[in-house]
Amino acid sequence: MRNFVRLLRFLSWMFAAGLAAGIVIASSFYLFLSPNLPDVEQLRSVQLQTPLRIYTRDQQLLGEFGEKRRTPVSYNQIPTNLVNAFLAAEDSAFFEHQGVNVKSLARASLQLASTGRIQSGGSTITMQVAKNFFLSQERTFDRKFNEILLALKIERELEKPEILELYLNKIYLGNRAYGIEAAANAYYGKSIKELTLAQAAMIAGLPKAPSKYNPIASPDRALIRRNWILGRMQELGMITPEQQAEARKAPVTASYHGAQPEANAPYVAEMARQEIVNRFGVDAYTDGYNVILTIDSKLQKEADAALKRGLVEYSERHGYKGPAGHIDAPEGDEALNIVVERLKEFPSVGALKPAWVVAVTEKKATLLMSSGDTATLLWEGMAWARKYVHVNERGGSPKKAEDIFKQGDVIYVKQHDDKLFLSQIPKVQGAVVSLAPGDGAILALTGGFDFFLSKFNRATQALRQPGSNFKPFVYLAALENGATASTTINDAPVVFEDANLEDSWRPQNSSLNFNGPMRLRKALYQSRNLVSIRLLQKVGIDTTVKFLSQVGFEESRIPRNLSLALGSVEYTPMNVVSGYAAIANGGYKVSPYLIDKVIDYNGKVVYQSNPAVACSQCDSNRRNSDSKDQPQSNIAPPIADPRSVYILNSILQDVIKRGTATKALSLGRSDLAGKTGTTNDQVDAWFSGYNANIATTVWVGFDQPSTLGRREYGSRAALPIWIDFMEDALKDTPEAQLKQPPGIVTVKIDPNTGERAAPGQDDAIFEMFKAETVPQVVRQDSPTYDGGSSGSSDTPLMEMIFN
Q1: How many CB atoms lie within 10 A of CB 174?
Q2: Cα gap 490→153, rounded to integer Å
Q3: Which of 244, 369, 490, 686 lies 20 to 30 Å (CA to CA) from residue 748?
């Protein structure tokens, strides 16, 4: 008995000594580590790494960029079932402990003593917050001790809901998803508010091992983990037995969901991404910027659809180029599933969907779609498919379906009015870009048929010749240098000799005929090449180039020869539409811009656009202001006399009323103006048109310049796309005419000579002039100007008109 007492006393002393030693050691660690602990207050202002997001001006998501997908949510936004699922899985005593769970730590200590290494770690949610925000992921004793100290400190300074909110927004949950909102979107394509109990438990099972319990990669393991969590929730009284039973029956429905744009504009999103990274650096991918663009989602959708329809129509009217591929019919019970998997190698492009020809009869075909469904293609949907021979020739009309394709072929189809139609992915490309003339805001832009087939942005990168689409700027230079809309110039053959050329230059009109003396108004709306050349020759190349640079066209790209009159310059569709915007707004140079504002993670606007605004009245006020100290608005500089611009606008309206773009009359509006453009051999086709509220340019051509084919002028290849887009863009909007500036006088003239009409002249027509250029006398023998055969002059046209 005495020995037992002695042993007990010895063990008591040993326990006390061990406890004291433990306290001393723990205190030593605390005193050593405590001064180096980070300030917990940092957690209140922590900036979670959040991706860059791009939005339209009407708040539609265009794109998300960044390796980490995260959408922070506040605690009161998190459904109770989701909170409980995480507590059941990770820390059921979270709301009871003070940051450290002693039992869990004891269990971890026993593991360390028995195995020599830390296994479960005994971490609470608070300890995980300390680790995730402040510490490394290494499994060492000093890191664990720091974690404990930090957890205690966090619990003293933050409320429980704040800690849980930080945890649920920070944790990695697989598939690039950080935080519960990003995970709900990544696995289920929905918000946390829409998750079922089973889905909430599935996500709560991920922190333990995101790869091991991933419901997409490892659905069986994930299901076991989910059901265990549901069982724990019932044990803890968080759900009823009936709720658990119902949730356990739910199948694994997770599938990968990328960041889903609400509006489709990949060319625009990429432009914005590049600009933001250039402005803010690569940290923009993680700093949580929300970028608001000038793009209108409705107009963007219409621009993209109009371009796709127009390019497909061009492709189809030149003939069918054959199936996109062939898949031999496999054997066995899984044959159709095999074909469906192979079909996924063929991308869907807009409305065009790949299909496998299951069977062919004389006038129809049975198809297997990539969705696994079968469909029928009737004869009326494929009868158009005459074989493509070359750009100017098609084969004969097909007589039966087998003349077009055979069983096993992969074809593309589109749907219209619940019927399928054979189609094909076009090789031809195009671009549409639309601006607000008042300040240059980009309203819609698409740089090609499909971004995922070709990322080259033709709206901003393709330097192409605009042809006659450029003539209005040459004519505006003439109007600025003494010409009038009634100035007559001879539309007649001319030959230019140049020592630098191997042969003489004999420019032609597209119609190959000549009309003799013509007024400038008529010459422009009929797009007469010879008149344009003689006009440039008279105004002078140097004078014209100087004016064009004032409009905003890069001078180094302007050829200093008479081919300039025919649009031999090379500019992008964005350059061209910028020039037309200056006409549409009454004569003010505006610069296209895409980004309206940038908002940081905390909701602060860190960038706000300040575009130059076209405002004739504002500009007048600025010129008349006597005070040099008076602050001025950001007013766009004028490019020309507003009266010259107004007269040119009226001529461009005639292009639609009676010229090369009469198809646009189908829109039933009187406020539209524009100009077609086609280059030699129909290599490039253009149409640029506008009213006072919107200016839009369309370009069509091949990336490697080659002819679009006979008769593929701007009026046929580009104008229908413009009409298609503008029909929707202008729907339910009032007409927006350019306001007439003071100093315009309208008088009757002789349509043949351009001179003032004689009193009572039957065929007299009205023409508008700047007040100082109104013809004052009637002349019986009005001269015309044939421009000579070579050279250039800077002599004002007034000498020619009134001499």
Answers
A1: 21
A2: 91
A3: 490
Under CATH, what is the fold of the domain 321-423?
OB fold (Dihydrolipoamide Acetyltransferase, E2P) (2.40.50)
Which residue, 257, 285, 253, 128, is CA-closest to 183?
257
Give yes or no for a contact between 361 and 375, defined as CB atoms under 8 angstroms apart: no
Sheet of 673-678: strand order equals 442-446, 429-435, 695-701, 684-690, 673-678
* Helix H or strand E segment including 31: helix 2-33
Q: What is the dihedral of CA 404, 407, 413, 419, to 10 degrees?
A: 90
Question: 434: how many CB neighbours lie within 10 A of its CB?
Answer: 29
Q: How far is CA 661 from CA 641, 665, 674, in A?
A: 26, 8, 8
| Max intra-chain CA distance, the chain | 148
pLDDT tens-digit readout, 661-714: 999 999 999 999 999 999 999 999 999 999 999 999 999 999 999 999 999 999
Q: What are phi and psi of 689, to 5 degrees?
A: -150, 165
Closest CA to 352 of 316, 401, 405: 316
β-strand partners of 613:
635
Sorted by where each begins, the domain ranges of the chain are: 1-36, 70-249, 321-423
Question: For residue 360, what is the enclosing H or E element?
Answer: strand 353-360
Dihedral sign for Cα atoms in the order 290, 291, 296, 300: negative
Only one residue has tokens 């990669």, namely 217
Task: Take residue 612 and report the two structure tokens written for it.
Answer: 């130059």
SS3 395: coil
Check: CB of residue 656 under 8 Å from CB of residue 692.
no
Place of tokens 């090449």: 529
Closest CA to 718 of 703, 730, 694, 701: 701
User: Residue 2 class from Cβ within 10 Å (0-12 exposed, 13-18 middle, 19+ buried)?
Assistant: exposed
Q: What is the mean pLDDT of each run of 10 residues along the chain (803 residues)?
A: 54 44 40 47 58 92 76 89 92 82 58 51 74 56 64 81 86 82 87 94 90 88 93 94 94 78 88 94 85 97 97 97 94 84 91 95 94 94 96 95 96 93 97 97 97 95 97 98 95 73 71 86 95 95 97 95 94 98 97 96 91 72 41 82 98 97 97 97 97 98 96 97 98 95 95 92 95 77 42 36 28
- Give yes or no for a contact between 685 and 714, defined as CB atoms under 8 angstroms apart: yes
Burial class (CB in 10 A: 0-12, 13-18, 19+), 190: middle
Using alpha carbons only, give the angle 705, 707, 712 rounded to the nearest 5 degrees. 125
CA-wise closest residue to 429 among 689, 717, 695, 725: 717
Report, at the CATH architecture level, how domain 70-249 is classified: Orthogonal Bundle (1.10)
- The answer to whether 70-249 and 321-423 have equal CATH topology is no
Q: Are strands 695-701 and 364-369 parallel, antiparallel or unpaired?
A: unpaired
- Whether 186 contacts 257, CB under 8 Å: yes
Decide if 89 contacts 205 (C-beta within 8 A): yes
* Token couple for 464: 């192409």
Q: Which tokens go with 762? A: 């039957």
Burial class (CB within 10 angstroms; exposed 0-12, middle 13-18, buried 19+) of 456? middle
Catalytic residues: 90, 468
